[in-house]
Amino acid sequence: NTGEHLRFFGSWGDSDGKFIEITGLAVDQTGKIFVLDGEKNNVQVFTNKGVFIRKFNINNPSDSQLFGAIS
Questions:
Q1: Per-residue exposure over 24-59, b if at least 16 CB sit within 10 Å of its own CB, e if not
Q2: Per the count of CB atoms within 10 A, which of 13, 16, 21, 24 is most buried?
Q3: Residue 55 forms beta bridges with which residues?
Q4: What is the model's pTM?
Q5: Are 41 and 59 in contact (CB under 8 A)?
């Protein structure tokens, strides 16, 4: 990749696929994108095209081991 912008997805808000405070981001080996929203205390999972798949709640958004466990 040359660092060029490929796509964007999501926007501000409280529903699925939207964010209030993005505090972390990870991509797994299959290309799934994990976005940690520290305000909503959840992780939303997207395809590599930015399509919402699911979300799960977390108890401690500052847990430094979170992204090691899901990536």
A1: bebeeeeeebbbbbeebebbbebeeeeebeebeeee
A2: 24
A3: 44
A4: 0.76
A5: yes
